[in-house]
Structure formats: C-alpha cells, structure tokens
C-alpha cells in the first residue's frame, strides 16, 4: 500500500526542528539503556563501526532479512526501484547496496545495456555482492560494478548517474552525515537525474509503533540468533531505526542539497522513502 504524503513547508520546518530533538532523545534513551541494548556504543555512527557491524552480519543478513520481514523487504525494494521511471540502458547507482539485494529488482528493468554500480562500505557485503554479480552475468544480465567505499566520500564522477537508488541504507547515518550524503547524491546525479531512497521507519500510529518496535528490538535479534548470527548486531538495527524515525527527518537535508524531494510512505509508515530529482537548472 503506497500513499504520497504531501509535506507542506510548515510541517516540514516543524519536523526539521524536531529532528535534532528526536535524535538527542533517542540518544538519551540509548545512553540509559532504555532501548534494549544495555550500552549502545558511543561511536555507532562511525563508518568504521558500521562497516564492521555489517561485515559480521554478512553471513546471516540475507536469511534473517527475508524471514524477519515476512517478504515485505523484497516488496519494498521493488516499490523503491519502481518509484522512479527507470528506462532500459540507464546508468544506476545502488548506494549502501549490501549484498546487491536491490540490484535484483533493478537488472530486469535496465536490461543488458544498463550500467549498474553498487557501492557499500563493508568488504564482506561487497564480497557477497560480487558473487551475485558474477552469477547474474552468467545469466546474461548486465554487469554490476561493485565498489567498496564510504558513501559519504564517493569515488565516483560528478554527474555520472541517471538514477541513485537505495534500500534500507539511510538509518546508519546521523543527521549531519545525512547532509553530506545528500550533497554526494546531488553531485553524482546528472542534471534531471532522479533518486529513490527507501528505509524502514517507525510508523506514526502508536498502535502500530509499539508492537513494531518490540518486534525490531526483541524478535529480530532472536531470529538473528536462530540463524547463528550475533543477536547484539541485529539489536543494533532496531537502535538505528528508532533513532532514524522516518525519512521526513532527512527531507530538508535533501532540499538544502538542491534536490527536489518528496516523501512516500509504505504500509502505514512501516517504511518511508525520499523520492525526487536534481533540477536541470540549479535551484536559485
Ligand atoms: C541494512 S543494509 C541494506 C542492504 C541492502 N541495500 C538491502 O536492501 O538489504 C545497510 C548497508 O549499508 C552499508 N553502509 C552503511 N554505511 C555506509 C557508508 N557510509 N557507505 C557505504 N555503505 C554503507 C552497510 O555496510 C550495509 O551493507
């Protein structure tokens, strides 16, 4: 179920001023251990920490993600890829690609003349992404070029992509990092290029939010353990999600980077996305 959310300027400004408060409140809750992990590491937005976290999760992430999301993750990725009109042969950047899960949805759309670059900071995630890429190449799909790098400092040329897509890759960034990320996306997109960035979110309704957060904080770590993963690592995903809230918190950063941006909500706000484009003429 998808609905466009018309975010008025006033609402957006109000929410933007709430972003830092919300972030601080989440950090406070974490500091006192109110958010399920007794002591969240103080540097949990440090790219090195995040890279190591996903290196450790790489072996189990695919299964846990599939089972714990009841298939929603796959459906949301598909919706993320289809939220923009990607033509055959397009040049696409999949940011925070993980094991190239979103590429699975992108490749049939771009066809064999497309050019897909998949970027991730975690060497282990990249290793899995390369394996998948080789498999797809043997099946006649276009080649996915996997780049191991920090999305906050992309080693990619200015204006070199028609589309930037990402699924479940925003939550591990703190608000100041989101601003840098937005500028990087604006830099690598060509004028007129579009983006669609989806993230799991805290639904606005308390009726849904309470069981949903319980599920994220308590049940997913158990599922992680079941698949022989480290439950503490999976608990971190709940901590990041809680602090992230939803994509509205990142909207102003994208507008400030010169990108025309709106927010989409999926399944009663359990996932949200930033969708938009880089204007042909820079915003005055
Ligand atoms: C939750 S996974 C999402 C993976 C995949 N896109 C999906 O749909 O499941 C988040 C990914 O973001 C990557 N990541 C986090 N911070 C990053 C950064 N600064 N630069 C590049 N990748 C990053 C992590 O390594 C991890 O693979």
Describe the structure.
The chain is α/β, with parallel strands linked by helices. The chain has one domain (2-277): Rossmann fold, CATH 3.40.50.150. Helices cover 49% and strands 19% of the residues. It has nine helices and eight strands. The protein has helices spanning 9-31, 47-68, 72-82, 103-110, 123-138, 175-188, 206-226, 231-244, 248-256, and strands at 2-5, 91-95, 115-120, 144-148, 161-167, 189-200, 260-266, 271-277. An eight-stranded mixed sheet has the order 1-7-8-6-5-2-3-4, sandwiched between helices. The radius of gyration is 18 Å and the shape is globular. Mean pLDDT is 85; it is low at 1-38. The site of S-adenosylmethionine has 23 residues, from helix 2 and strand 3.
Keywords for this structure?
Rossmann fold, 8 strands, alpha/beta, 49% helix, binds S-adenosylmethionine, 284 residues, disordered N terminus, single chain, eight-stranded mixed β-sheet
Shape verdict: globular
Ligands, deduplicated: S-adenosylmethionine
Strand content: 15-25%
For the record, what is the CATH homologous superfamily label? Vaccinia Virus protein VP39
Q: What is the ordering of alpha helices and beta strands?
A: EHHHEHEHEEHEHHHEE
- Overall structural class, as computed from helix and strand content, comes to alpha/beta
Radius of gyration: 18 Å
The count of DSSP E runs of length 2 or more, i.e. the number of strands, is: 8
Helicity range of the residues?
40-55%
Stated plainly, the CATH topology is called Rossmann fold
Instruction: Tally the helices.
Output: 9
Q: How many structural units, i.e. domains?
A: 1
Q: Write down the CATH class.
A: Alpha Beta
Low-confidence stretches: 1-38
- Kindly report the average pLDDT value: 85
For the terminal residues, how far apart are their CA atoms?
Answer: 36 Å
| Strand arrangement, major sheet | 1-7-8-6-5-2-3-4
CATH architecture descriptor text: 3-Layer(aba) Sandwich
- Largest β-sheet summary: 8 strands, mixed
